[in-house]
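Batch queue: ligand-bound targets. Current item pairs a single chain with fe (ii) ion. No template structures supplied; prediction is de novo from sequence plus SMILES. Inputs echoed for audit trail.
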Amino acid sequence: MQEKHPTMVPVPVRDLINGSTSPVNLYVRIGTDKFILIEKAGVKTNKDRLQSYEDKTVEYLWVKRDEYTQLVDNNIAIAGVMVNQQSLSIAQKTQILSQAAAGVFAELEHIGLGFETYSHARQIVEATVALAENTDNLSHLLSSLNDCSDELLRHSMAVSSISVLIANALNWENKQTVEKLALGALLHDIGLKALPPELITKPRALMSFEEIQLYEQHPYKGMQMLLNLGMVPDDVVAIVYEHHENAIGQGYPRKLRNIKMHPLAKVVALANDFCELTVRSTNNHAKSPREALKTIEITMGQPHNKEAFRALQLVVNKEFAKAAS
Ligand SMILES: [Fe+2]
Ligand SMILES: [Fe+2]
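Prediction returned. Tokens below.
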């Protein structure tokens, strides 16, 4: 991650969509406060050309802060079209969607959670729902997400997609409900942004008592961030606040039991544990979906809502039934 700059926002070259037309000017950074225009708005992006400047490898290009939203808008519009294209593979679709989502997470990081970022997150969710509903191959989806470079983004996109697959297996048909589920899942760990970055990647076993207490505030902090926006549906706020609760009352921050948990949070809490096991992170190597189910069932004593867990089993086993046939 690049350090913040008051007027410019970094864009990883890998997150630019090759061949698309950039709606904004792109700059390279040559000093603390020095930027040089490398590509004008309206020119087709050629990543090979942009990846080096004066024989140096360029990992980040820079965009003026007040123009950044246009770039994100553009990437989301492209991703929205691409995920519905039959000719592309799941891996290609996931990559394009992750690139667009990376822009939204960078917007969150550099500009903060405002109306623009929130509406961009909603658009990402629409495309995620479309992608997950047209995918019956869970392993492909997970391995495509494992290629995505930003850890929080990878995890959040996975929790969002898996939550939609669980909802499908539960036969939830209300589109608005599924979109709220996917949005809450995409934003569930947003409160981590309010914590010291070194704490987020620290293994829990190495945290002091005070650090654990601070870490466990992230659902509350996330809820506060969404409430401050003043327009986020209650269901989405509840998901963020309750994503570390579980059905047996051993979660945090409120130790709610199944009956007290929000129905959408029950799904996201399970998807969150499943994705912590199946998506690679600093502290974990990725388990297979089947191994992850076993870990939740046996090692963790299956603490989640029973119907949601059965639905997740269906999602995973459907794939194995297919692989065996
Ligand atoms: Fe979390
Ligand atoms: Fe999480």
